[in-house]
Structures are given as C-alpha cells and as structure tokens.
Design a protein that fits this description.
By secondary structure, the protein is an alpha+beta fold. It has helices at about 20-25, 75-85; strands at about 5-10, 15-20, 30-35, 40-45, 50, 60-65, 70, 85-95, 95-105.
Length: about 110
Amino acid sequence: MLKFRLIRSDPTKLEVEITSSQLISMLPIEIQEHPVMGEIERVWLSDKKVYSVKNLDPSSVEIHLEGKHIKISDEKMLSILQTLEKFEIALYYEGKVDKYIVEKIKL
C-alpha cells in the first residue's frame, strides 16, 4: 500500500498522511453535481499532465446514475498514483479552486 502526505494551506493549514485507498476514496478524479455547490470537478495535476474525467481513456470512466457523478475507476487512479511522486489535486466549484499538494512517502 502506498502512503502519501496531503498538504493544504488555504483556507486552513492541513497536513496528514494517508494511504492510496484513502486518497482515492476522499479525493477521486471526478465530476459531480453537488446539491449546494452545483457542478464540481476534481483533477490531479502533475508537472507533465492533467488527469481529468475529460481527458482520460473513456474505458476507465465510471458513470453513476444517482444524480450526475462521473469518476475515474479506482484501478485506474491507483495505477496513476504508482507513477507520481509529487502532484496537486485541484477542486473546482462555484468559480473557485481548492488545491492540495500530494507527496509520495518513501517507505
């Protein structure tokens, strides 16, 4: 199991260690309709690539029928995590963006 350091500085400072399973569960690559915030999109950004529902292979996309919820499969996200050492996660909503820095922890 891979481990990562998740860092956020705004609006409040946060730094936690999480596993790859926790990261995929809590911060997946997705687009969904939120009941309060409207459409939200979460992407992973490396220095070389943007990982988004909009640009990854359609065969790795899962569509859930409860409201609008489109996400990349857990297996695909795990394979992406195995290749990344440091990247950002960006959550876009209501014209705003929240960013997290993610660093792989060497065991």
